[in-house]
Design brief:
The structure holds 2 protein chains of 2 kinds. By secondary structure, chain A is mainly alpha-helical. Chain A has 6 helices and no strands. Chain A has helices at 3-16, 29-41, 53-61, 71-90, 95-111, 114-140. The longest helix of chain A has 27 residues, at 114-140. By secondary structure, chain B is an all-alpha fold. Chain B folds into 2 domains: 10-92, RNA polymerase sigma factor, region 2, helix turn helix motif (Rna Polymerase Sigma Factor, Chain: A), CATH 1.10.1740.10; 110-204, Orthogonal Bundle (Arc Repressor Mutant, subunit A). Chain B has 9 helices and no strands. The chains are: A mainly alpha, B mainly alpha. Chains A and B meet through helix 1, helix 2 and helix 3 of A and helix 2, helix 3, helix 4, helix 5 and helix 6 of B.
């Protein structure tokens, strides 16, 4: 590139950034051509995006929309209701039978040694703690994301 | 839609978008729509693909936004995504990225034609001047479309977005010296393209 080209470009660049007069173009085809080039480079490209472009993208991504029905929740609710109905249907008809059953369980527990009872309590506690831990872990986990690289 | 509060910083906007706030996402699109449009519309000539590509850029930005570390300006990061999205698209379509017009041959009959650029002496000067100006601009636009991708991108980010050479070098992953060279060489090619085309038209008159 010649110094002439370089200096013409610098002058037009300053001019189009509002910092100085344009170089004279009369009788100077190079300067006249650069004037057109700079002018077109500052032009908006032809064509436009629709007015609701942002809405379209937001809808396509689903930003801020209510989450769709979680079918796992529906299944869980169904199982709870079904379990409740089954319990009501199969429940002993009298409270006396229920009381007998509870008494039997109490006697069985009484017959266990202290060590066995402690083991049972510890095992139940451990299972509960593990369940809560796994639940928290699954809630906090999400697939790793990576920023796009230059080549992607 | 341009009701984005001016005081909302990039960080606030990003955090709100990541929180899933629709209004913040719309403001995000509104703020950077022009930038994305400039890059995509200058890089991709096919009208049918442009709008979808602009959407793809914002979708990718949304997808990767939680990986943005504020180490650069959001506009720089987004321009980079826009450019990469377009490059992927052009590669898929097998559009040549480096097939710009050759520099104008040195001076083949140019002097007369070049003088013609400034030779408008006619009673209907205004009408002719306007028509000539429109025509010249059209020729330069064709020249831009014929430029290699790296010239187009550098010129678009510099002239339309007002980005600094350092920002452009970050977007294009090129040293600043290379970006400056793209800018000067790109403009020179357009100038030569214009002069060359005018000489051809003048010869056929």
């Amino acid at each position: 590139m010649t110094d002439r080209n370089h200096s013409l470009q610098d002058e037009f660049d300053r001019h189009f950034r509002g910092d100085g007069p344009p170089p004279p173009t009369d009788g100077d085809p190079e300067a006249a051509a650069y004037e057109v080039v700079f002018s077109v480079l500052e032009e908006e490209p032809e064509g436009d995006l629709p007015d609701d472009f942002g809405e379209q993208v937001a809808n396509r991504i689903g930003v801020g929309t209510e989450p769709s029905i979680a079918w796992s929740d529906v299944v869980l609710l169904f199982l709870l209701v079904a379990g409740l109905c089954t319990t009501i249907v199969l429940m002993p008809s009298s409270f006396a039978a229920l009381r007998d059953t509870m008494g039997l369980i109490g006697q069985s527990v009484q017959s266990l040694s202290t060590y066995v009872r402690l083991d049972v309590v510890a095992a139940v506690g451990l299972v509960l703690a593990l369940t809560v831990g796994v639940d928290q872990l699954l809630k906090g986990w999400s697939p790793p994301r990576h920023a796009p690289s230059a080549s992607s | 839609m341009s009701n984005d509060a001016p005081e909302r910083s990039e960080r606030e906007l990003v955090e709100q978008v990541l929180d899933g706030e629709r209004e913040a996402f719309l403001a995000f699109v509104d703020r950077y729509e022009r930038l994305v449009k400039h890059v995509v519309f200058r890089m991709v000539d096919d009208d049918r693909d442009r709008e979808e590509l602009c959407q793809d850029v914002f979708m990718r930005a949304y997808r990767y936004l939680d990986g943005f570390r504020f180490e650069s300006k959001l506009s720089t990061w987004l321009a980079r995504i826009a450019r990469n999205t377009c490059l992927n698209h052009l590669e898929k379509k097998e559009v040549p990225l480096y097939a710009d017009h050759a520099p104008a041959p040195d001076g083949d009959g140019a002097p007369d034609a070049r003088t013609a650029l400034n030779r408008i002496e006619d009673p209907n000067e205004d009408v002719i001047a306007a028509a000539t100006d429109r025509e010249r601009r059209g020729v330069v636009r064709e020249g831009i479309e014929a430029l290699s991708e790296h010239y187009r991108t550098a010129l678009t980010l510099y002239h339309l977005e007002g980005m600094s050479v350092s920002q452009i070098s970050e977007v294009m992953d090129n040293p600043e010296g290379t970006v400056k060279s793209h800018l000067y060489r790109g403009r020179e090619k357009l100038k030569d393209w214009l002069l060359d085309r005018y000489s051809q038209e003048e010869l056929t008159l």
